[in-house]
Write a structure and sequence with these properties.
It is built from 9 helices and 18 strands. By secondary structure, the protein is of the alpha/beta class. The strands form 4 sheets. A 7-stranded mixed beta sheet has the order 6-5-4-3-2-1-18. A 7-stranded mixed beta sheet has the order 7-8-9-14-15-16-17, with helices on one face. A two-stranded antiparallel sheet has the order 10-13. It is globular, with a radius of gyration of 22 Å.
Length: 301
């Protein structure tokens, strides 16, 4: 099952020439989830050939502009392009008021349903669940209420071994995929282990946007296969990171190592850094499996 993330925006509050504010697209089994929606998100979708019509779920971490200023434009374009199917938005409660205010004063009547789900930044818990994913929210420590999200795959059914089920009636496939042995009318038994193989182990992706790296959210991300974590500053600017409730590249690496992650992606770079090698080197010195969030790059999770 496909489980991958494409970075659309990797900058912090101030965009720079070759970097845009925060946005990512998660693809789980060909369902598309947008995580944050900074300015230029819809242009980045076009640039990297990701159809906005495929986005059915949007998750907004907090109400600093570099994480949501692109949302009203994206929703408006979906309307102008004739979208009719619903979209589900998960984010801070005031975001609903912001969207309604902008639509009202522009006299825009969106032709498709927007299902808004208020996420309480202070209360961890499951906010969304479908046949593929469970999405868990957890509080982060930023200057305003901020939410992290953990996207966990659900365990898939066992896979049929095609060459072994050629002569097995289709009616028994469902039971075999669920791991149940099947008793045929003649009394013979089809053992599920003989006709199927186990599916891949489910994986998880934790998205930690703006936060002071204080360990308060450690339990929520522990055991994640891949962690995305903001790394706005080098550690030499720790005082500035603490002042603005952000994280350094070194701190992000230490957290990933402590959480037992397989991979770490760092992003949300300060505009002061024209090149990113120093941030990567600082993180890899502690956690070698660190990668930079590079716009347009897709990471298999």
């Amino acid at each position: 099952m496909k489980f991958e993330v494409t970075v659309l925006g990797s900058s912090s509050a101030t965009p720079v020439f070759n970097r845009n504010p925060s946005a990512q697209v998660l693809n789980c089994n060909e369902k598309i989830y947008l995580i944050d929606c900074g300015e230029a998100t819809q242009q980045q979708l076009i640039r990297y050939n990701i159809k906005s019509a495929r986005i059915d779920y949007v998750f907004i971490t907090h109400l600093h502009g570099d994480h949501y200023f692109g949302l009203i434009g994206l929703l408006s374009s979906m309307h102008l392009n004739g979208r009719l199917k619903p979209i589900d938005i998960y984010g801070p409660a005031p975001l609903q008021e912001i969207l309604e205010l902008q639509f009202r004063h522009s006299e825009t009547v969106i032709r498709y349903p927007i299902n808004f789900h208020a996420v309480d930044p202070g209360t961890p818990g499951i906010v969304m669940e479908n046949s593929d994913l469970t999405v868990y929210s957890f509080p982060l420590n930023h200057r305003i209420p901020c939410t992290g999200f953990r996207f966990g795959q659900k365990k898939r059914q066992r896979k049929l071994i095609k060459e072994k089920v050629l002569n097995v009636p289709v009616v028994y496939f469902s039971a075999l995929k669920k791991g149940a042995d099947v008793t045929l009318p003649d009394g013979s038994i089809l053992a599920a282990e003989d006709y199927t193989v186990a599916s891949e182990e489910p994986r998880s992706y934790s998205y930690c946007s703006d936060t002071l790296c204080d360990g308060s959210y450690f339990e929520a991300i522990e055991g994640s296969n891949t962690i995305y974590h903001e790394a706005t500053f080098l550690h030499e600017m720790l005082d500035r990171a603490n002042e603005t409730h952000h994280t350094t590249a070194l701190q992000a690496a230490e957290l990933a190592a402590r959480a037992g992650a397989e991979n770490l992606i760092i992003g949300h770079y300060s505009s002061r850094y024209k090149t990113l090698d120093a941030l990567l080197d600082e993180s890899r010195a502690v956690f070698p499996q660190t990668q930079l969030a590079i716009e347009g790059r897709t990471y298999t999770l």
